[in-house]
Specification:
69% of the residues lie in helices and 0% in strands. The protein is mainly alpha-helical. It is built from ten helices and no strands. Helix 2 crosses helix 3, helix 8 packs across helix 9 and helix 9 packs antiparallel against helix 10. It has two domains: 51 residues, Arc Repressor Mutant, subunit A, CATH 1.10.10.60; 111 residues, Tetracycline Repressor, domain 2 (Orthogonal Bundle), CATH 1.10.357.10. InterPro entries: Homeodomain-like_sf, HTH-type_TetR-like_transc_reg, HTH_TetR, Repressor_TetR_C, Tet_transcr_reg_TetR-rel_C_sf. One of its GO terms (biological process) is negative regulation of DNA-templated transcription. It comes from Thermomonospora umbrina.
């Protein structure tokens, strides 16, 4: 006997890598990174967990790398003619994404696969090269910016959860970012 798909299954959005990563991000945001399993993800997508492996052959490792890369996407407005404005726009947008998806933060410091952030680092290096920095200075500047934003977001998430005093995190972030951007040679 051939089993016919249900009406809901017939109208379900096709399974794609992006849809899988978005669903995983939703689980991480709502339940935490520790609750992300392939079975739970399959349930959320209304598919068998094994169907996910068609789009992510390396399984959970590829999924975790995909989460890091998804949160690290460089916004289009970060491609401005004014390199400092472009970097400020990127930093603000990346910080906001990290704070919105704080469950992904541990992956940024524990994943051994730097390829998940290589596109972001390359984009930052390119902005700095176009500003006139030599290759090594552009690489160092991109690394410093990435480390600052990730580190600040991690401190902000940690301290916001435990802080008794009110801290203007946005002002603190902006002041630190301005110091870094002023320190980049042009």
């Amino acid at each position: 006997m051939v089993r016919q798909p249900s009406v809901a299954a017939q109208h379900r959005e096709p399974l794609t890598r992006d849809r899988i990563i978005e669903a995983a991000l939703h689980i991480v945001d709502g339940q935490g990174l520790g609750r992300l399993t392939m079975r739970r993800l399959g349930d959320a997508l209304e598919v068998e967990a094994m169907a996910i492996y068609h789009h992510l052959p390396r399984g959970k490792e590829e999924l975790l790398d995909g989460l890091v890369a998804h949160v690290a996407v460089l916004p289009a407005e970060a491609r401005s003619a004014d390199w400092r404005a472009a970097l400020r726009s990127w930093a603000d947008a990346y910080r906001a994404r990290l704070l919105a998806h704080a469950g992904v933060l541990p992956l940024l410091v524990t994943r051994r696969n730097p390829a998940a952030l290589s596109g972001t680092t390359a984009s930052l290096r390119e902005i700095l090269r176009q500003a006139g920095l030599p290759e090594q200075s552009a690489a160092d500047g991109a690394h410093a910016l990435l480390g600052y934003v990730i580190g600040h977001a991690a401190l902000e998430v940690r301290d916001t959860a435990a802080a008794e005093e009110s801290v203007d995190w946005h002002a603190r972030f902006s002041a630190g970012l301005a110091l870094i951007l002023r320190g980049l040679p042009t």
